[in-house]
Design brief:
Elements: E1 2-7, H1 10-20, E2 27-32, E3 42-43, H2 51-61, E4 65-68, H3 71-75, H4 78-85, H5 94-101, H6 103-112, E5 120-124, H7 128-136, E6 142-146, E7 155-158, H8 161-172, E8 183-188, E9 193-202, E10 206-208, E11 213-214, E12 217-219, E13 223-226, E14 231-234, H9 241-261, E15 267-277, E16 280-287, H10 295-298, H11 306-315, E17 329-336, E18 349-350, E19 360-363, E20 366-369, E21 372-375, E22 379-387, H12 390-403
Parallel strand pairs: 1-2, 1-4, 2-3
Antiparallel strand pairs: 5-8, 6-7, 6-8, 9-10, 9-15, 11-14, 12-13, 14-17, 15-16, 17-22, 18-21, 19-22, 20-21
Helix pairs in contact: 5-6, 7-8
The chain binds adenosine monophosphate (AMP) and glycine.
Adenosine monophosphate binds next to strand 6, strand 7 and strand 16.
């Protein structure tokens, strides 16, 4: 197969690494890719949301499968656009992508299919007074969410009514998140343990991918600002067979069946963020793609041909595909630029990459120039490693992290510690 992968992060490097291992991968292009994806295919400098340009490229290169990494092209309808052109896409339709693109949609969906989630109400721009009235006697803390895509920043956990009211007002008036905030979801705060579940579905059948936990805060012991993710661990020890069976029964199956019953069967990767409260899983959010950095720990644990599985997704034959998981633990530690998630400098020369032997390096924000690898983003490099347990795997990730140098390098040394 001739494959076009969309995106440029660590997730896409991990996907490229795995796709290129398949004997069925005839050609792999990554738009736009990074210095790591270039090791497994050819980077092409096209935007993942410029559908007409991507289509031209597909025609010129006889592409027969598109795999979008990030959510933006999916929410903008990349699957619908290319379905019409006859190029299959491993990703949901624009209608199904609303699960991520609109929290108001996903909450309504969960409510109508009895999928456990936090109690909520949603309000549009014309309903400021109603929203503030709803808030006024809401128990604290209360969670205020911009309904649309907000690059992971649209969720505020408010400890006072004044703070929550201000957040709601700013969102509805379009002052804080633009259009994404002009519908808000106000919901109950759930206290528990978070875990991410990943599913690959062809609309009728599904495979449960490994579970993972990510570490979102910049500081050790989960302090400081939220980031795109500073590390991840898979599997999550408490997610044993009994727990996963419960998640499949109470959440995965009703979600996929609910979408099919609404006429929008889900084809692609579904990422379900859960909060486990007193042993019971609740859905915090759906994403219609794989997570980053979760992909950098779940893809290395996949013992199957990813090209085969992707073909199963677009042909409705996922049930016939071979599938197994590596029982080992995989962890990743993300190296980031000094200053991230605030402002940071790019273009720092990276050294020591070739000396890392006990870990797999997945590039996130890097680029190649004159034979050197330079930093090119906030999250720079994911250092993934296997082990018999978290301790062993994370030891190797940290050892790899220490061997790489660039000015301003920062990483968390406590990834996985809470699970040991
Ligand atoms: P979301 O983008 O909806 O997953 O929210 C981002 C993060 O905010 C989640 O990973 C949780 O840590 C937190 N969060 C979201 N909703 C809730 C909730 N109802 N209760 C507690 N924490 C939440
Ligand atoms: N690591 C969280 C995400 O990809 O949304």
């Amino acid at each position: 197969m001739r494959i076009l992968l969309l995106g440029s992060g660590g997730r896409e490097h991990a996907l490229a690494w795995k796709l290129a291992q398949s004997p069925r991968c005839e050609a792999l292009y990554i738009a736009p890719g990074n210095a790591g994806t270039a090791l497994h295919g050819e980077n092409v400098s096209l935007s993942p949301t410029d559908f007409p340009a991507l289509y031209q490229f597909c025609q010129a290169q006889a592409i027969d499968l598109i795999i979008p990494g990030p959510e933006q092209p999916l929410v903008e309808g990349v699957a619908d656009f290319f379905q019409e052109k006859g190029v299959p896409v491993v990703g949901p339709s624009r209608a199904a992508a609303q699960l991520e693109g609109s929290k108001a949609f996903s909450k309504r969906f969960m409510e109508s299919h009895q999928i456990p989630t936090a109690r909520y109400a949603s309000f549009d721009a014309g309903q400021e007074a109603e929203a503030l009235a709803y808030l006024s006697d809401h128990p604290l803390p209360v969670v205020v969410k911009a309904s649309g895509l907000a690059a992971g920043k649209g969720v505020l956990i408010c400890n006072s009514h004044a703070e929550a009211s201000q957040a709601v007002r700013e969102m509805l008036r379009g002052e804080s998140f633009g259009e994404a905030g002009q519908t808000v979801v106000i919901e109950e705060f759930l206290q528990g343990i978070e875990i991410s579940i990943f599913v690959m579905s062809d609309g009728q059948h599904y495979k449960l991918l490994p579970s993972a936990k990510d570490y979102k805060r910049i500081g050790e012991q989960d302090t400081g600002l939220n980031t795109g993710g500073m590390g991840a661990v898979s599997p999550v020890p408490f997610a044993d067979a009994a727990f996963l069976a419960r998640v499949e029964q109470e959440i995965v199956q009703p979600s996929l069946e609910g979408l099919a019953s609404e006429g929008i069967p889900f084809q692609g990767f579904l990422f379900i963020g859960l909060m486990v409260v007193a042993g019971r899983p609740y859905v915090l959010e759906y994403n219609v793609r794989l997570g980053d950095p979760e992909t950098e720990v779940i893809i290395p644990r996949l013992q199957a041909d990813l090209v085969d599985l992707c073909e199963g997704v677009v042909t409705g034959t996922l049930d016939q595909k071979e599938f197994a998981l590596d029982p080992r633990t995989c962890t990743t530690v993300m190296l980031v630029s000094g200053g991230y998630p605030g402002s940071y400098e790019k273009g720092k020369v990276m050294t020591g990459l070739e000396s890392v032997s006990e870990a797999i390096l997945f590039h996130a924000g890097t680029r190649q120039e004159a034979g050197q690898v330079l930093t090119h983003g906030g999250r720079v490099l994911a250092v993934s490693a296997y082990g018999a347990n978290i301790q062993e795997a994370v030891g190797r990730s940290l050892q790899g992290a220490a061997q790489i140098s660039f000015e301003g390098k920062y990483y968390r040394r406590d990834i996985g510690q809470d699970l040991m």
